[in-house]
Every structure is written in C-alpha cells, then in structure tokens.
Amino acid sequence: MRFTNLDMDALRSFVTGMELGSFARAADRLGRSTSAISAQLKKLEEQAGVSLVRKSGRGLAPTTSGELLLSYGRRILDLNDEAVGAVKDADLEGWVRLGLQEDFGDALLPQVLGRFARSHPRVSIEGRIARNSELIEKVRSGDLDLAIAWAGEETLPFARRIAEVPLCWLGAADLDADWRPDGGGPVALAALEAPCLFRSVACDRLDRQGRSWRLAFVSPGLAGLGAAVAAGLGISVRTAIGLPNGVRVLDPAAHDLPELPSLGLTLHRAGKTLSPTAEHLASMLCETLADILPDSCQVSV
C-alpha cells in the first residue's frame, strides 16, 4: 500500500488560515506571500484528493472534508512541534519559575505548560497565578524568571511589549438590550481590589463622561468578580479573554458607555540573559499568545 505524506508547511498554512479566518492573515503570520499560501493550499488539496475550502459570503469556510482535516491537522502540527522541540532541546533541565496574570491561567497553563513538560521531562516548572503588582515585584526580586502581566505605569528593565489588547465593558448576559447607566443613580461597578489597572480605567472613563459611579462589589480575584457581574451586581471593565459563564461584552454605543482604550500585554524577564530553558519557555508562551488572543489585538511577538 502506498501512503500519502501530507506536506507539513502546506498543512500549517491551511490550519493557520482557518483559525485566523483569512489566508491573507495566515500569510502575514507565517511570513509568506498570499500567492505562496494559495499554492500550498492547492498542493494540500491535491495530496488529500478533496476540496478543503469553499466560498462562504465574502470569505472562505472549510468543506466537510476540510473540517475533518483541520481537526487532524491541529493534532499533527502539535505533535510535530512537540517532537522537534524535544529533539532540539533534549538536554534541557533545571527549574523555570513562571508567573501569569489571572486572565491567562486557564488559557496558557494547559496549552503551554503541559506541552513543555512533555517535551522536557527533566525540567521542573514553578508556576504562580497572581495579580500584576505581585508578579512585577517577584520578577524584580528574582523570585520569578518570567511573567506575563498587563503593562502599567511601572516598567522593568527587561520587559517587552508583546500585544495591545482592547478593553471592554462587561455585564450580565441577561442585561436588557436597552439598559442605560443613568437610569437609577450612580453606575454600579464591580471591580478587583485596588490597585487595579482595569478599575482605574473604568473610573477614569466614567469621570471623563461626567457620570457618577459607585463600587457595588469588590473582589480579591477574578472568580468572584465574574460571579458578581453575572449576577447583575454591577458592570466591569476587563478584556474579552476567557469570559466566564453568564457574562457578555457590552456595546458602548448601545448602552451609552464611554469608549475604552487598549491595554498593553508585557513579557517581563528577570534579566537580559536567561537560561536556555527559560528562553525556550518564553518563546513558547509568545507563540501561544499569538494564537489565542482575539483578532482585534495588535500582536507583536
């Protein structure tokens, strides 16, 4: 029996294009021309013997066969990347101490740390989920090698801005479509304990709009904050990353709320030069963030 070997570059272009919703975006992400991506897609369809994409409105969507290959393709590429990383860095060992902002714990821990641990079984990872101020302090003191945190007023010497993430107003999923913040006194806000960048932005933007506000609920962590917003105790400012159940993004224009800025996402490093193990983990973190961040984000990894 003669087996067909799928072209890995073509498969990566196909999967990336489907995940980004555009082969032009895939070309930018992979550093190729749009014509090269189109040629790879044609090659992949010839190898598979079926059409993989179809026209859908002004864009493209996977065919039934394309959806099936997309599912297999993700797993094939993950195994390929894991195998290459394991072979290239087979001698990596030691400790890496990583800190993550709460927003990214659920998204990054399973995807990055599990894959990293399988590729490098002799490396031990010490992870910490914490808020910005704690993460920055622990990087400064040398208690963490790496940290993913929101960019505030304080910048460490070896920090690198890796993305700009739009902020948004969040409210209960069942909030009335015609709800306005001036219907019953001050705007009820749900926020994290101070100091909190998101809380400061919410208060500042409402002040600029001339609206009064009150802190209706204060939580030490995101779980409590999400529960309060879902219960309708107040609206809040966060990003659209990892929305909890019962919470939705509010359209500022529809609800007469002030527009919000974007917030920088930063990779903090304990020093200019890190161990090969920490450098490899940093690269993997940035690559994964580029994949999971919404299309509205400006990613520079």
TrEMBL record:
Record key words, sorted: DNA-binding, Membrane, Transcription, Transcription regulation, Transmembrane, Transmembrane helix
Pfam families: HTH_1 (PF00126), LysR_substrate (PF03466)
Keyword Membrane: yes
GO-annotated molecular function: DNA binding; DNA-binding transcription factor activity
Superkingdom to which the source organism belongs: Bacteria
Membrane-traversing stretches: 215-235
Signal peptide: none
Residues covered by the HTH lysR-type domain: 6-63
Family the UniProt entry places it in: Belongs to the LysR transcriptional regulatory family.
Entry protein name: LysR family transcriptional regulator
Species this protein is from: Roseibium aggregatum
